[in-house]
Amino acid sequence: MCIIIMGMGGKPSQLLNIPLVQKDDITTIRCFSGGGTVVVDTSSLWICVHGKSCKWSVDYVFGNVFERCKLDAIQRKRRLLQQDYNGEKEGEKKEDMYPNFTLRENDYVLGQHKIGGNAQAITAQGWLHHTSFLWDYQQENMAYLSLPQKRPEYRGDRTHDDFLVKLKKVYGSHEEEEEDEESAKRAFFYHVKCACQDSFDVKEVTVKDALDVVEKELGGMQAWLDGKCRARIIEV
């Protein structure tokens, strides 16, 4: 199961394979923020940063996250090679396998490959930045997206298969290891938490705490969706 999320100014006729989306009855949501069009599912990793006036750096926060992920991956590979005579030397070579994280033409990329969608919303009351990192996805779901007319220069005419990379493929456990996928995801979010603590004063709350705020200050989730919420399911 997947859904399509479009930026506020996105046009389905230019961004979607409409006959296929209609045939498979794929839910399409127009978000309240900008950004491009993404296909997401339960394997996507969702992160949202919002505030009133504080400044922050994408490179410092997410650059920090992916540097930590890279170091974890290198250490795992070295452990697997410890029984090798040239294990340490080979482990050092493996560092080149993990490309650096950069912000390129507003895209989050590892090397030449995009790793998720991101978007911003700014009002007089504050700002919000959210992203959906692609830990994993079904290749066939990318057929719901067309090649956009306006696209970053570094992408060129590459298809989604050639343009995207799964974080699981780069930072996930290796076949020789028994680490389960959920553990790898938890490690990713742990690195996000640590990186955010370096930039912000972080106070942890539970899901119940967050839902209590929605209930008390917004009148409940359904009232918010029916009223002030600017994200909408659209017909294509």
Automatic annotation (TrEMBL):
This is BPL/LPL catalytic domain-containing protein. It comes from the Eukaryota. It comes from Ditylum brightwellii. PANTHER family: BIOTIN/LIPOATE A/B PROTEIN LIGASE FAMILY, BPL_LPL CATALYTIC DOMAIN-CONTAINING PROTEIN. InterPro entries: aa-tRNA-synth_II/BPL/LPL (IPR045864), BPL_LPL_catalytic (IPR004143), Lipoate-ligase_2_inactive (IPR053264). Residues 3-172 form the BPL/LPL catalytic domain. Transmembrane segments: none annotated.
